[in-house]
Amino acid sequence: MKYEEIYRATLEKWGAEAQYDQAVEECAELIASLKHFRRDKVDEEAVIAELADVTLMVGQLTYMFGPDKVGAAIESKLDKLKRLLSEP
Ligand SMILES: [Mg+2]
After folding, report:
1. What residues does each domain of the chain span?
2. Per-residue pLDDT tens for 8-59?
3. How far is the CA of 38 from the centre of ligand 1 (A)?
4. Measured in angstroms, how far is the CA atom of residue 86 from the centroid of ligand 1?
5. pTM (2 d.p.)
6. 54 with 30: CB under 8 angstroms?
7. Measured between alpha carbons, how far is 54 from 22 in angstroms, rounded to an integer?
8. Cα of 79 to ligand 1 centre, how many Å?
9. Which H or E run contains 63?
10. Ligand 1 centroid vs 80 CA: distance in angstroms?
11. How far apart are CA 61 and CA 45, in angstroms?
12. Residue 87 and residue 59: Cα distance in Å, rounded?
């Protein structure tokens, strides 16, 4: 099953509001795991698991808001980053 099919099925089953809430929750879990990782309370695997959750939610939200629009925003951000990196 392609990612887009999973995102579509997830949206159809649970709805947009649930996806927003889930994205917020997964971001919070990644934040917590990074803080714990810095204090040696969790291992790298725990952070990677939360990173996977957030990556999937970013994919879900990107599907919902429009991959083309998100792609264009990413290009714009990368251009800005490249400019900053080229400054002395
Ligand atoms: Mg999680």
Report:
1. 3-86
2. 999 999 999 999 999 999 999 999 999 999 999 999 999 999 999 999 999 9
3. 18
4. 36
5. 0.92
6. yes
7. 9
8. 31
9. helix 44-65
10. 30
11. 24
12. 32
- Report the C-alpha gap between 47 and 78 in whole angstroms: 25
Amino acid at 67: P
CA distances from 37 to 8, 20, 77, 83 (A): 33, 26, 28, 32
The amino acid that residue 52 corresponds to is: A
Interval between CA 33 and ligand 1 midpoint (Å): 9
- For ligand 1, the distance from its centroid to the CA atom of residue 65, given in whole angstroms, is 22
For residues 48 and 31, give the distance between their C-alpha atoms in angstroms, rounded to a whole number.
12
Other Cβ atoms within 10 Å of 29 Cβ, number: 16
Give distance in angstroms: CA of 88 to centre of ligand 1.
39
For the segment 8-19, what is each residue's pLDDT rounded down to a tens digit?
999 999 999 999
